[in-house]
């Protein structure tokens, strides 16, 4: 079912499509191809943060549930070199760095509603050559599907007519128990290393061991034990390359529910939503405060174009970029 969700300031209509199956129901809006709401039968709250109206997505709700790119996360100083060509990219993070593809990145654009049925919806976007400083005109298609399990799967396809950088991520904030914070959530991520960052969250260089740090989630860890400590907004290093088939990269548990996150991507940005402060009412009628959700962003490592030893984000002309991210839900875990 497709319906109008709201109208952007320039008059564009933002559409919403709700898909369902196997006890799971998801609503996706064309703004950012965003997962706006996710509900499981028998659970009285959405499993992701979101808003019932469009307006918050233009401000405090920016990136909530969005498909971000063409380069997710950060590129230092908005600079990169590609085949000897020095690129100056959009610097939308404090005027210093590129974040999520720039101020007009895919997570803030109104995608085209391409196709949908009861259990699947596909949205498309086109980025012209030179968009936000990147070479290559790029076509992108993001498909959200509900499968037996229940499973919510996101498949992202992209092609370019010139060599470019390509790195997408889904940016949902998960909250499985409906509480005000994620303190009682338990997170596990099979990553032995992470990327240390500077004050602007730009990687400093080589990965470092997670052991003995606040970023060690190799065993299930209650997030409340970590929320009062150093900021959690880091890339956990899962592999040194992308994979064809998704592999499990995280498990999140709370309120008798468990979500296994699987992905083809070599990194997982874990962010505990420190920036949130009460504003517009979200799902359930209450505003979101600090640590109301946790983002688990499957991705190529941040600033990879500036680090030869990081997994490559290079996309050759005519080649197909394909990312698969799978969210599998199970009930009543111990």
Automatic annotation (TrEMBL):
GO biological process, one term: galactose catabolic process via UDP-galactose, Leloir pathway
Residues annotated to bind beta-D-galactose: 73-74, 171-173, 233
UniProtKB keywords: Carbohydrate metabolism, Isomerase
Pathway(s) annotated for this protein in UniProt: Carbohydrate metabolism; hexose metabolism
SUPFAM superfamilies: Galactose mutarotase-like
EC number(s) recorded for this UniProt protein: 5.1.3.3
Gene3D superfamilies (alphabetical): 2.70.98.10
Enzyme class, spelled out: isomerase
Residues at the active site: 171, 297
InterPro entries associated with the record: Aldose_1-epimerase, Aldose_1/G6P_1-epimerase, Gal_mutarotase_sf_dom, Galactose_mutarotase-like, GH-type_carb-bd
Catalytic activity: alpha-D-glucose = beta-D-glucose
One Pfam match: Aldose_epim
Molecular-function GO terms, alphabetical: aldose 1-epimerase activity; carbohydrate binding
PANTHER family reported for this sequence: ALDOSE-1-EPIMERASE (PTHR10091), GALACTOSE MUTAROTASE (PTHR10091:SF0)
Family recorded in the similarity comment: Belongs to the aldose epimerase family.
Protein's UniProt name: Aldose 1-epimerase
Organism: Paracoccus kondratievae
């Amino acid at each position: 079912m497709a319906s109008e969700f709201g109208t952007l300031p320039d008059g564009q209509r933002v559409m919403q499509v709700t898909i369902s199956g196997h006890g799971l129901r998801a609503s996706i809006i064309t703004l950012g191809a965003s997962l706006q709401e996710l509900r499981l039968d028998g659970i009285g709250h959405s499993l992701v943060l979101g808003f019932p109206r469009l307006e918050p997505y233009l401000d405090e709700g920016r990136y909530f549930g969005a498909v971000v790119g063409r380069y997710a996360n950060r590129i230092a100083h908005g600079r990169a070199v590609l085949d000897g060509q020095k690129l100056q990219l959009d610097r939308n993070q404090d005027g210093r760095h590129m974040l999520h593809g720039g101020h007009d990145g895919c997570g803030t654009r109104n995608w085209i509603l391409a196709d949908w049925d009861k259990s699947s919806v596909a949205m498309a976007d086109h980025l012209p050559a030179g968009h936000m400083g990147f070479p290559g005109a790029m076509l992108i298609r993001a498909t959200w599907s509900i499968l037996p399990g229940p499973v919510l799967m996101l498949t992202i396809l992209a092609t370019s007519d010139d060599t470019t950088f390509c790195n997408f991520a889904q940016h949902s904030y998960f909250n499985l128990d409906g509480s005000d914070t994620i303190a009682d959530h338990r997170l596990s991520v099979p990553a032995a290393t992470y990327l240390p960052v500077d004050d602007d969250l730009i990687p400093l260089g080589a990965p470092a061991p997670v052991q003995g740090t606040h970023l060690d989630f190799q065993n299930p860890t209650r997030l409340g034990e970590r929320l009062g400590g150093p900021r959690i907004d880091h890339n956990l290093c899962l592999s040194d390359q992308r994979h064809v088939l998704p592999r499990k990269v995280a498990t999140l548990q709370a309120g008798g529910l468990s979500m296994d996150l699987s992905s083809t991507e070599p990194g997982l940005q874990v962010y505990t939503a420190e920036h949130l402060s009460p504003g517009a009412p979200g799902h359930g009628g209450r505003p979101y405060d600090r640590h109301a959700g946790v983002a688990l962003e499957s991705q190529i490592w941040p600033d990879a174009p500036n680090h030869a030893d990081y997994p490559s984000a290079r996309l050759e002309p005519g080649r197909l970029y394909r990312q698969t991210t799978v969210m599998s839900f199970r009930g009543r875990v111990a």
